[in-house]
Amino acid sequence: KINYKVREHSLAKIPALLVVGKKEAETHSVSIRRLGSDRQTVMPTAEALAALVDEATAPDIKRARSAN
């Protein structure tokens, strides 16, 4: 069933798929799979969320924040 979801993710062109299974839940981490990549990256949940927020922030907002 998981392979079906990964394929569905690829066809829908969703940029990132975050997976939390039993192992990730125990270690407070998340597995991230990027569109167009067969690799998965596992990182702490807080770090993953910070990276995704940074990635989703528009460049002009980043410039405005750094200017303050």
What does this molecule look like?
- The structure is a single chain.
- With 68 residues, the protein is of the alpha+beta class.
- The protein is 54% helix and 22% strand.
- It contains 4 helices and 3 strands, in the order αβαββαα.
- The longest helix is centred in the C-terminal third of the chain and has 12 residues, at 45-56.
Determine the structural class based on helices, strands and strand pairing. alpha+beta
Oligomer kind? single chain
Radius of gyration: 15 Å
In which order are the strands of the major sheet placed?
1-2-3
Number of helices: 4
Order of helices and strands: HEHEEHH
Mean pLDDT: 86
How many strand elements?
3
Uncertain ranges: none
| Main beta-sheet strand count, sense and barrel state | 3 strands, antiparallel
In short:
By secondary structure, this protein is α+β, with helices and mostly antiparallel strands. 54% of the residues lie in helices and 22% in strands.
Features:
three-stranded antiparallel sheet; 68 residues; alpha+beta
Provide the fold topology:
Blueprint: H1 2-11, E1 16-19, H2 22-27, E2 29-34, E3 40-44, H3 45-56, H4 59-67
Antiparallel strand pairs: 1-2, 2-3
